[in-house]
Structures are given as structure tokens and as C-alpha cells.
Amino acid sequence: DTGVSQDPRHKITKRGQNVTFRCDPISEHNRLYWYRQTLGQGPEFLTYFQNEAQLEKSRLLSDRFSAERPKGSFSTLEIQRTEQGDSAMYLCASSSEQGHTEAFFGQGTRLTVV
Amino acid sequence: AQSVAQPEDQVNVAEGNPLTVKCTYSVSGNPYLFWYVQYPNRGLQFLLKYITGDNLVKGSYGFEAEFNKSQTSFHLKKPSALVSDSALYFCAVRDMGVNDYKLSFGAGTTVTVRA
């Protein structure tokens, strides 16, 4: 499968714990994005990487959130001291460098904070 | 700032009837426009896009969409809906300008096709 893959697919954690999600983009794609989707809403932009450089972070991404893309390949999204409001689907997407190309999305990681 | 509005939360049609899902957008420059579909507990699947040129674009699974610059709309259409088209549909926009990476989504429209 040469699509975008995310791991894990589901995560249940207790409030206050830290969680980390991984995204493996399509190998030739320079651009990588993280989105968050809550029930009944469209995906909301969280952050964007061009190769290994994180070029934009949404104000939705509080200090408890951090994302990395070492070596411009896979990416991780970490949430520290999780809160119940963090429960959502976290989607990763990748695309080539041209703005007109579509982004390909992974299956998402569904986080439930109890 | 860029944004997308999908004015209908739900669209219900009978199988075999035409299907239309509405979308309007706002960007400061010229838009790239996209439609995605999402099935339960799945990621988003790309359906079609408008970049430039012909205002009517064709995509996967028999879907098409019409770009209307004067009305800033990009409605999704299918001439004859199938039960299997029942899903959540998202319209999205990118500005062709400096921030051509950011994809902004509408809230989504749930399509139900009854047999």
C-alpha cells in the first residue's frame, strides 16, 4: 500500500497522559499536513511541513501539542497532558509541492480521552 | 482568509435521481477547489478538483462539479445517485497565492441515497 498511513488507528488514554501519533506520507511528497476533525465538523488545519521544516502552526495547536518531521519523511504529533477536549480524529495528509495537486489523507487516528 | 460554506447539512435523494451537493467559497485570490468523500471511520478520499480551464470537471465514481466564478460556487453533481454514494462530502479550497498549501474545508454534507 503506497498511500498515507497512520498509527495507531485508535487510542484511548486517561486525562493527563501523553500520546504520540505517527504518520508516514507518500514517499515522494514534500508537503505534510495534520488536521483535526471533531464530530459533525470538517477537518481543521493544525500544522504544515515542507520537507522537515514546520512552516505554519494553527492557533488551535496549543503549547501541549508538538509536531515533528525529522529528515522530511515520517511525522509525529504529540499531545502532552491530554484533556477531554482533545478527543477527536487526527488526520494526516501529504501532497507534492504544487498547490494545485490534491492532498492524500490517511485513515486517521481516533483519540478518546477518558 | 479563505473559507468554504456547505449550506446543507443533509441531502436525501432516491436512487437513480440526480444528486447535487452545494458549496460556496471565499478566497482573496484565485481558488483551487476540491471535493472529498468520507465513509464512516475512514479518512478522506479525493473525488475531483478544479484548477483552471473548463468550468465543468469530472471525477471519480461518476461525479462532476461546476465552477462558477461569479457565484463563487463549486457544486458537486451526479446524474444518477447510487445507494453506495451515501457518505459525508466535503468541499475544500486553497488560495493560489502565497499560502497555496493550506486546504480549508467546509463543515460537510451528509448524503443519504435511499433504495
Protein model, in words:
The complex is a heterodimer of chains A (114) and B (115). Chain A has strands at 5-7, 10-13, 19-24, 31-37, 44-50, 53-57, 65-68, 75-79, 88-95, 104-105, 109-113. Chain A is mainly beta and 114 residues long. Chain B is mainly beta. The model of chain B has no long low-confidence stretch (mean pLDDT 93). Chain B has no helices and twelve strands. Chains A and B meet through strand 5, strand 9 and strand 10 of A and strand 5, strand 6, strand 10 and strand 11 of B.
What brief labels describe this structure?
heterodimer; A: mainly beta; seven-stranded mixed β-sheet; B: 115 residues; mainly beta; 12 strands; globular
SSE layout and pairings?
The complex is a heterodimer of chains A (114) and B (115).
Chain A: E1 5-7, E2 10-13, E3 19-24, E4 31-37, E5 44-50, E6 53-57, E7 65-68, E8 75-79, E9 88-95, E10 104-105, E11 109-113
Parallel strand pairs in A: 2-11
Antiparallel strand pairs in A: 1-3, 3-8, 4-5, 4-9, 5-6, 7-8, 9-10, 9-11
Chain B: E1 3-5, E2 10-14, E3 19-21, E4 24-26, E5 31-38, E6 44-50, E7 56-58, E8 64-68, E9 73-78, E10 87-95, E11 104-105, E12 109-114
Parallel strand pairs in B: 2-12
Antiparallel strand pairs in B: 1-4, 3-9, 5-6, 5-10, 7-8, 8-9, 10-11, 10-12
Task: Summarize it.
Chain A is mainly β and 114 residues long. Chain A is built from no helices and eleven strands.
How much is the average pLDDT of chain B? 93
Helix content of chain B: under 10%
- The coarse silhouette of chain B is globular
Summing up helix and strand content along with how strands pair, one would put the structural category of chain B as: mainly beta
> What is the H-and-E element order of chain B?
EEEEEEEEEEEE
Instruction: Point out poorly predicted stretches of chain B.
Output: none
Counting DSSP H or I runs of 4 or more residues, the number of helices of chain A is 0
Report, as a whole number of angstroms, the end-to-end distance of chain A: 33 Å
Gyration radius of chain B, in Å: 14 Å
Mean residue pLDDT of chain A: 93
| Uncertain segments of chain A | none
Strand content of chain A: over 45%
Strand proportion of chain B, as a percent range, falls in over 45%
Q: What gross morphology of chain A would you assign?
A: globular
How many individual β-strands of chain A? 11
The major beta sheet of chain A can be summarized as:
7 strands, mixed
